[in-house]
Amino acid sequence: xxxxxxxxxxxxxxxxxxxxxxxxxxxxxxxxxxxxxxxxxxxxxxxxxxxxxxxxxxxxxxxxxxxxxxxxxxxxxxxxxxxxxxxxxxxxxxxxxxxxxxxxxxxxxxxxxxxxxxxxxxxxx
Length: 125
Fold this sequence. Notes:
mainly beta
């Protein structure tokens, strides 16, 4: 069992930055691919970014490419999402997720086994 705890959300003005963190329990974090998803009110959960288990590969949704950066520190069992140049449409609850079955990048939520509780990001215009 893996527990994921997100932090770092908050209220920020458009153009600002936030860094989300996701701390994972367990000793096998380094074998999991990790992803970030978000869900805005009234919308479905959508993929944001993913990183392979050894951080050799990353992938981003087109809507955040060039503004967001996913990274991980396997020694700290933590994955990060640095969000720059935030826009009001980035407002959502952000979730981190772990794919325990594959170390490769996945963009589909159904392929992830463990989820955090989410952290709210609100971008004001």
